[in-house]
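Entry 14. Structure prediction run on the chain below.
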Amino acid sequence: MGVLPLQFKPGESWELLGLKGDEQIDIELGSEIRPQADATMTIRRADGSAQRVALTLRIDTPIEVDYYRHGGILPYVLRQLIAA
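Output returned:
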């Protein structure tokens, strides 16, 4: 719950980026989360190099934005029930 779904842009993949699993990954979102917005992934490798890659946020509808902000669909529904 509350997982941020991201997708590589066309022509990019973890294989093409040479990701092995020992990198540090940072995700930067814009100031406002909106459906299919762009995000930036910064890859920091063990050798000290860094690479920035554009990603697409795979929150596809406004209600999914609300679900994410509440930590997932279950917390969202529970808050709605409590408020009723």
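The CA atoms of residues 12 and 66 lie 28 Å apart.
Filed with the rest of this week's runs.
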